[in-house]
Amino acid sequence: MQTTDLSPMNSIRASLKPAALALATSLALGGLVLPAIALAQAAPAAAPAAAQSPQQIVQQIADQMGTALKGHRQEYKKDKSKLVAVINSILLPHFDTTYAALLVLGRYARTATPQQIDEFRQAFYNALIDRYAEGLVNYREGRVTILPGRPASDRGRRDIVRTEVALDDGRKVAVDYVFRRDSEGQWKAFDVVIEGISYIAAYRSQVGEEIRRTSLDALIKRLQSEGGKAIDTMKKQSAQG
């Protein structure tokens, strides 16, 4: 087995730290265009994804995230915009952002315009990062074990990287990263499954409920204006429903 220093993922059931949902959020929905300063602060640029297996990608993200945060935690605690930029510079090359947004929208994607889909993707992602990014500063190395898996070539267009996360109390939680090949043949992640709960499926339910109550345009505007508060409201309304 291969042990890495990837941040643990925060369970939708709230059994994991907020630090980890920030990473899960980025993993599933990353999508910001980064300023030059962010790229300078982050770890070296990734090798082409086509040359890497999904397991190698998860390992690389772990290594780069640890390098980027080491010695800079206090700086990022004071300036969240720098932290968000670093997260994106490391994660963005490896995630199918459009596909993830379509899955979160579910059936509502069929009637949405390309502009609405893009605006939703950006607003939803920004809101999630606004809510959870600060927690990522507090993660510590050595919490994740990448479990053995078959070579990616055996799985065609989809693959799953299975990991095990060690919590502070000694418990271990299963966290799976779901990948697919994009149109250029590169492996890109699009979902995180925590203790059997799909990140995409959980937020699809919350987003769908809000669209039914209001509209997609109204949801986009609320995400843009309220940021992380909009995410908290959706979660509370979903729990009450």
Could you explain how this protein is built, in words?
The protein has 241 residues and is an alpha+beta fold. The chain has one domain (2-240): Nuclear Transport Factor 2, Chain: A (Roll). It contains ten helices and six strands; from the N terminus they run E-H-H-H-H-H-H-H-E-E-E-E-E-H-H-H. A six-stranded antiparallel sheet has the order 1-2-3-4-5-6. Strand 3 (158-166) and strand 4 form a beta hairpin. Helix 7 packs parallel to helix 9 (216-226) and helix 8 packs across helix 10. The radius of gyration is 17 Å and the shape is globular. The termini are far apart.
How far apart are the termini? Answer: 41 Å
Number of helices: 10
State mean pLDDT (0 to 100 scale).
75
Approximate strand percentage: 5-15%
Largest sheet: 6 strands, antiparallel
What's the CATH architecture name?
Roll
Summarize the entry for a quick read:
The chain has 10 helices and 6 strands, in the order βαααααααβββββααα.
What key attributes describe this structure?
241 residues, alpha+beta, 15% strand, 6-stranded antiparallel sheet, 10 helices, disordered N terminus, Nuclear Transport Factor 2, Chain: A
Task: List the topology elements.
Blueprint: E1 2-4, H1 18-29, H2 36-41, H3 54-69, H4 73-78, H5 80-91, H6 97-105, H7 114-136, E2 144-146, E3 158-166, E4 172-181, E5 187-194, E6 197-198, H8 199-213, H9 216-226, H10 228-240
Helix pairs in contact: 1-7, 3-5, 6-7, 6-8, 7-9, 7-10, 8-9, 8-10, 9-10
